[in-house]
Structures are given as C-alpha cells and as structure tokens.
Design goal:
This protein is 41% helix and 13% strand. By secondary structure, it is an alpha/beta fold. The chain has two domains: 53 residues, 3-Layer(aba) Sandwich (Rossmann fold), CATH 3.40.50.1100; 195 residues, 3-Layer(aba) Sandwich (Rossmann fold). The strands form two sheets. Strands 6-3-4-5-7 form a five-stranded mixed beta sheet. It has a two-stranded parallel sheet with strand order 1-2. Strand 1, helix 2 and strand 2 form a beta-alpha-beta unit. Helix 4 packs across helix 5 and helix 8 crosses helix 9. The radius of gyration is 19 Å and the shape is globular. The termini are far apart. Bound molecules: pyridoxal-5'-phosphate. The site of pyridoxal-5'-phosphate has 13 residues, from helix 5.
Length: 272
C-alpha cells in the first residue's frame, strides 16, 4: 500500500503493531510513508485506530481485512498474473496461501477454481496461533499472517477453503534461511511457511520450481505477499476441513527420506 500511495502521490500513514520486523518498517518508510506503531504484535489495536482515523474527513481507510475489493483484486489480477507465468497454460491442482487479510488465498483461489474446478484451496497459519482451525490466538514468528482474529474476508469465504495447514514458526524460518542459502531468495518467514505447506501436500515439482512463480513476482528485498502455486500429485496427508475437524501439521525436523526427495534424489534403501 505504501508503494501504491507513493506512486499515486497520496500521503500514507501506516498503523502497525509494535514488534513487527525492522524490514517492514523500513520498507514502508522507504516509500515515504509515516509509520505509527500501536499495540502488541497482533493488529487489533492498530485496526481500531485506523477505523477511528478513517472516519475523519480527509482520511481513507482501505479496510483490507474486510473489503471485497481486496478479493476482487486478487481474483482479477494476481490470479491471472500467476497463471500467465506457469508454462503451457497449466492450471494448478492446488493453491496454498497464508491468511493475513485472506484476500490473496480467497481471490487467487477463486480464480484458479474458476479455471480448474477441482483445484484445492489450502490456507496456512502458524501452529502457535491456530486461529482458523482451532480458534486460538498466540504469539508466533510468521509475520503477515494470523493477525489475532479471523478476518471478515476469510469468514465470508471459508466455504472455498478445502484445508487449513498449520506450520511451526521455527520450521518456517528454517525454510526461509534455506531459500536464501540455496537459491539466493530474500524472502520472509511466510514464504518459508508456504513452501513447507506446499511440500507437505506432495508437490510434484522440486521445491525450487514451486517457489519460482512467487519469487518471480516479488521484488528482491520485499516481503512477498504471494501464494505458492504448483501442481499437486496427490495428498499424502489426511484432508482436514476448516471448522475444527481433523487437522495436520507441517513443520518439525523433516526426515532423511523427505529431505532427499525434496532434493530430487531417490532415497537409498533402508539398511537391513
Ligand atoms: C509477508 C506476508 N505474507 C502473507 C500475507 C497474507 O496475505 P493476505 O493479507 O492477502 O492474506 C501477508 C499480508 O500482508 C504478508 O505481509
């Protein structure tokens, strides 16, 4: 939003909780936004402040957690833009997206589902703040998702979501570091979480390929707000449905066979 405001020539005031990363603050300020920090980690207090300011003359508060424009933008722009980057008109069998506002996974999910009715739409949240699946709010380290409540967008469109996957913060950060080390990708923990979730869903392509559509769209240095979209062969994990039935968790230390498969090597037969 700060980038758009800079390009359009609007004055931008970003209200965000304390405890966000230095990168997030620096990016907003680099685009000329003024930043006000308020409340602790989750965004509820910041949102209340935004609602208050937004009702004053001269302010416009986009209400991105609730606005259908957010969904529409992702359905009509990000979804088609992502599909256009996939080879040979491929429409993925699944799309995986962390839920901050919910706009990305819902809008992109609608777009992909429109082109492939059996496309699975999978939401990601931190294990430590299992709000969508279990109604719990906790501190976690996957900034940008799980902001402390179920956003209006997600609540209205939850019928679209086939599955919610919970990822450990530490595992997401480990994956983020691996992406930097092995692929030179400067991405945040939510990208690590997306990729772990996608890999757990038996992604056909290697991890590097899976992340490419997202990385291609995200400028280096930015924290990407993008889904990982990739064809899925079959789901090895039990299907869980939003609303508190069965869930499964990605994360933890992957086993040797999983690591080898991810690197594209055939596992050696187990000794004995
Ligand atoms: C780093 C990061 N990842 C993922 C998301 C989730 O995107 P959405 O708000 O569309 O659900 C956000 C949201 O701002 C984010 O900042």
């Amino acid at each position: 939003m700060s980038m758009v405001a800079a390009v359009k020539g609007y004055r931008m005031l970003v209200v965000m909780p304390d405890g966000m990363s230095g990168e997030r603050l620096a990016i907003s300020r680099a685009f000329g936004a003024q930043v006000m920090t308020l409340g602790d980690f989750h965004v509820n207090d910041a949102l209340a402040k935004v609602a208050e300011l937004g009702s004053e003359p001269g302010y416009f508060a986009p209400q991105q957690f609730d606005s259908e424009w957010n969904v529409e933008e992702n359905r009509t722009w990000l979804g088609p833009e992502t599909l256009a980057q996939l080879p040979d008109g491929v429409v993925p069998d699944a799309v995986v997206g962390g839920v901050g506002t919910g706009g990305t996974i819902v809008g992109v999910g609608q777009c992909f589902r429109g082109r492939n009715p059996s496309c699975r739409v999978v939401a990601v949240e931190p294990n430590e703040s299992c709000t969508l699946m279990c109604g719990e709010v906790g501190r976690h380290l996957i900034e940008g998702i799980s902001d402390g409540f179920v956003p209006g967008i997600f609540a209205r469109h939850r019928h679209l979501i086939d599955e919610v996957v919970a990822v450990d913060s530490d595992a997401a950060i480990g994956e983020m570091r691996r992406l930097a080390r092995e692929f030179g990708l400067f991405v945040g923990p939510s990208s690590g979480a997306h990729l772990l979730a996608a890999c757990e869903l038996q992604v056909v392509q290697a991890a590097a390929k899976a992340v490419r559509p997202a990385a291609g769209l995200a400028p280096r240095g930015a924290l990407p707000v993008l889904p990982v979209a990739c064809p899925v062969r079959r789901s090895r994990v039990p299907v869980s449905v939003t609303g508190g039935r069965r869930g499964w968790r990605a994360g933890g230390r992957p086993g040797r066979r999983w690591r080898q498969r991810r690197r594209g090597r055939r596992p050696r037969p187990a000794a004995g």
